[in-house]
Each structure stands twice: as structure tokens, then as C-alpha cells.
Amino acid sequence: MNISMNTKLYTITVFSENAVGILNQITVIFTRRGLNIETLSVSPSALAGIHKFTITLFSTEEVVEKVVKQIDKRVDILKAYYNTDEDLVHQEVAMYKLATEKVLEHGSVEYFIRKYNIRVLEISNDCTVFLKAGHYAETQELFEELSKTIGVLQFIRSGRVAITRSKVERLSDMLESMREKSIGKK
User: Fold this and answer.
1) Phi, psi torsion values for 166, nearest 5 degrees
2) DSSP letter assigned to residue 1
3) CATH fold group of domain 89-161
4) Residue 49, by phi and psi: left (phi above 0), alpha (psi -120 to 50) or beta?
5) For the domain 8-83, what is the CATH superfamily, name and number?
6) Where are any strands of DSSP class E within the chain?
7) Which residue(s) pair with 54 in the sheet?
8) pLDDT of 22 over the 60 cut
9) Is 13 helix (H, G, I), strand (E, B) or coil?
10) Residue 9, class by beta-carbon neighbours within 10 Å (0-12 exposed, 13-18 middle, 19+ buried)?
11) 3-state secondary structure 37-83
């Protein structure tokens, strides 16, 4: 990861209806600018019929502003915003698959539960699966310890999931304003 000193991690949130091809429309904007998407998460939002894309990238604020404006111009996009970590409550989820034999040789699963607040999803004769929710640094720290002490067979981390610290979804304010304007015109 080649990150210069004047960049920081930004989270872009994009709202759209659930239509075919929207993800491609969004990612093309990043590709044309030579920007790397660090994480990507897509799901239905709290607003019925509207999906939320959460994208993280390392960049400057100037570049992020331009990207968000470009995304906003797309016909199928309702609205796009960007935030820094201070504006958000965010998490990632990571899963770790370990050889059960090695876990038992290590001693106590309780150690990992207490130190890292993990959940044990499965224990079988062959493997044990841990789940950890947290920030990137927390899930990475657990990965590094497990790699050194037990050995990780498989590892996967989700994209960031995030909500703003504001009272309502930012799109809600925009939609309410539009509704009030349309009522006022009648």
C-alpha cells in the first residue's frame, strides 16, 4: 500500500435504488482516477428500497470531493457523501480458521475470548473458526497473534460497515426536504 503523508482514510457513502450496473458505474470512477478502493460493503439501508454502498480509500480531501461529485452526477445515484472516521461509528468483521489440534495445543480458547472479545463460531475435529468485530487494527492484531502462535488456515475480513453519528441517515434529510418542496408546489 503506497500511501503518501498528505492522504488519509475517507469513507464514501453512496445511496441508490437497487439496480443492475450501479456498482460498475461507481468503480469506473475510481479506476479512471487511478484510485484504489480499500474496502467495499453494500447492503439495504434503513430507508425502504434504497441501498447503501460504503467505500473506503486513502486519498486527499480534494480528490475525494471530486470523486463524490462525479458519483453524484450518475443518474441512478440518489446521493453520495464522504466522511472521516471522526464522523462515523464503524466496524469490520473478520473470520479466522485454525486447526483445532493447534488450538488445543496452545491451551486455552478462553485467553483469546477474554483478550480479543472474539466469538467461537465452530469447533470441529478439523478446524475452529473465530469471529472478531472491531476496527482494522484490532482484527489485524488478532490475525498477527494467531499467525505467530497457532497458524491461520484461512482469513477473511469484511469491508467497513459504518453509520454517521448524526441523528438520522443523511439521505433522510435530503428526501424530507424534497418532499416538503413538492408539497409546497401543490
Assistant:
1) -70, 165
2) -
3) Alpha-Beta Plaits (3.30.70)
4) left
5) ACT domain (3.30.70.260)
6) 8-17, 39-44, 50-59, 77-83, 88-99, 119-123, 127-134, 152-157, 161-164
7) 13, 41
8) yes
9) strand
10) middle
11) CCEEEEEECCCCCEEEEEEEEEECHHHHHHHHHHHHCCCCEEEEEEE
Model pTM score: 0.81
| 21 neighbors 75 (Cβ within 8 angstroms) | no
Fold agreement (8-83, 89-161): yes
pLDDT of residue 54: 95
Using one digit for the tens of pLDDT, what is the confidence trace for 30-89?
Answer: 999 999 999 999 999 888 888 999 999 999 999 999 999 999 999 889 999 999 999 899
Q: At what angle do helices 136-149 and 109-116 cross, to 10 degrees?
A: 160
Q: How far is CA 8 from CA 12, 20, 38, 51, 60, in A?
A: 13, 31, 12, 26, 6
| Residue 172 confidence (pLDDT) | 67
Q: Kindly tell me if the per-residue pLDDT of 121 is higher than 70.
A: yes
The ranges assigned to domains in the chain are 8-83, 89-161
